[in-house]
Predict the 3D structure of the following.
Amino acid sequence: MAGEGGALSFSAASVVEDVLQQHGTRLGVVDLDSRRAEEAASRRYEAAGWLRKTIGVLAAKDLPAEPSEEEFRLGLRSGIILCNALNKVQTGAVPKVVESPCDAALIPEGAALSAFQYFENVRNFLVGVQEMGIPTFEASDLEQGGKSARVVNSVLALKSYSEWKQAGGNGVWKFGGNVKPTAPAKSFVRKNSEPFTNSLSRNMSAYEKHLNTLSADVDPSKMVTGSLSMLVRAVLSDKKPEEVPGLVESVLSKVVDAFENRISGHYDMTNKFSTHSAPLDKKAEAKSTRVYKKEESYEKCHVPTEEMRSKILKQQALFDQQQHDIQDLKQTLHIAKAGMHSMQREFHEEFNTLGVHIHGLAHAASGYHKVLQENRKLYNQVQDLKGSIRVYCRVRPFLSGQSNFLSSVDSLEEGTISINTSSKHGNSRKSFSFNKVYGPSATQAEVFSDMQPLIRSVLDGYNVCIFAYGQTGSGKTYTMTGPRDLTEQSKGVNYRALSDLFLLAEQRKDTFCYNVAVQMIEIYNEQVRDLLVSDGSNKRLEIRNSSQTGLNVPDANLVPVASTSDVIYLMNLGHRNRAVGATALNDRSSRSHSCLTVHVQGKDLTSGKVLRGCMHLVDLAGSERVDKSEVRGDRLKEAQHINRSLSALGDVIASLAQKNPHVPYRNSKLTQLLQDSLGGQAKTLMFVHISPEPDAVGETISTLKFAERVATVELGAARVNKDSSDVKELKEQVVTMHFLQQ
Ligand SMILES: Nc1ncnc2c1ncn2[C@@H]1O[C@H](COP(=O)(O)OP(=O)(O)OP(=O)(O)O)[C@@H](O)[C@H]1O
């Protein structure tokens, strides 16, 4: 909406003047015309001269010193000279003068550059002078056919104002000369300086003020230009008194017509400028909430149509809604930002706390690993002090139906067994010492409790050998495996050891990753065979000590296991494959050594270090004398092999116990197989089995002698240290370590 349409851009006086001029022309007052022309030219020259002087001849090069009406109009048409002159009088009155067409930032499509330029500068000039109370003119006065006299008037008024200002600006300046009060409420708005609506608002109030001034303070006769007075006089001078009323009526009627025409023409022009100006001022409209208020006041003055009013109201409602939405969004954004900041703060705090905790934990973990390592060493030392070779004796109970028999065992103490060797020559007893003696009533759990500590050693990377030694039928298989019908209570040490091993491995899973695999080997007649075969193959295997893999029989099946049930399955398979032959002494008698080897590989999850340990669970063949077993031929050969290998085992263990420099491992397949687990850091545990029947006393004595030979040296050392302060101290440390480990 253009401001130009907001006010009348012409005055009643100008209309009257026009009508009178037409009359004058028709009346053919030649003298008057020439006088008027002279006077107009003189005033135009005065105005041009002042403009040239004010802004400089060079800047005013488009305006001749004595311009014709056309030259004057063309010279000022761009508005540049006018604006520059106004700025000289009132600095900053036109903030931006468009000097060349390209200065016009936004030129409406289809509008001629010069027209737009003219409009912008001229409009700004008109706004400027209007604000100063100086008479304005119509923008169209600078167009062809326009009234340049009004432009002259405005310039001369500006000149007068300038002179008044230069003279000190005393009193109230009033343009008392040829003031032609053209519409002071020009709706032209300054461009580039502020939204047109503001100017419009200001213009409207100025217009109202001016109207008031016109009606109240100013004598109408003074407001009429000199030319108008002259015209009136010229028109009426030669008229008879009776002709005057008719003439006045005619003139007034024409004035009214002309006025109406101008109004309608004026509104047309307003609409045209509205269309052109709207895009330029859209930004300003959007930015300012005051726009609609100004428009409203403008509309009050110009009686807008219903359609326009409703359109404005709709726009205002839409604008209000958008403002409201923007406020809501701002609020939401503000809350979200605050939330983000608070979350960031919390995150940083938590992160820092976490860092501190992790640091502490890492420190504790490294300390914990050192403790664990130390613990392993100390634990092993304790086991050593207990004896790296331990011998336990177990007396089998009488079998069913033998309850009336007199036992060959005379007495049992914690570590000593006395055998009644009564004969026809008299009563005598023979005592044997071991680490511990289990009587006939000892349970499987009790027997296992003594070997249980060694399971932990296996997981710590040490090798362990557990033997079941004794004559046929003395209970070796019972101790190692259990009876045929297994129950939870009757399970042998093999099952219990493996259960414990898996349990401990599970407990350590946060620090170690364990892999467990088993092999099952049989040594029969000094031949090594794999018991974990499902195809019945009977291939002879070689023993090749490999320190890298820890496998002494690399060709035997090595089966990974993850639970006790896996191991039970494999043990059953091995037992089925084991060479079992009936003898006169025991229908399950085995004439081979069976060895279940459990290989354990543990990786330290922190250091990556790998520990390897293995446990040999050996069920030795019966140790009975050949002559008693009533065997001949192959059976005799089997028995001889068994006895030789058991003797070789005794020699090796005795050598180790006596710390002999030479240990005769190579005298049998059995000792070769177990070489890595006999001696050094390895622990050896032998369960010696005794039958209580009196008729087996000879065998019993010979078995006990064999076992005692192995045990004696070790027992001597162990007994010396048993209650020493070293052991006590170490035991305490281990208890502490164990507590820490929990
Ligand atoms: N501690 C015990 N309690 C109850 N019964 C037992 C005990 N020890 C052994 N037996 C029983 O004695 C018999 C012989 O035991 P076992 O087979 O274990 O002897 P062995 O020494 O392994 O014989 P072989 O050398 O022929 O294999 C079995 O019937 C077994 O159940």
Observations:
- The chain has three domains: 3-304, 305-384, 386-741.
- The mean pLDDT is 75.
- The first strand starts at residue 389 and ends at 395.
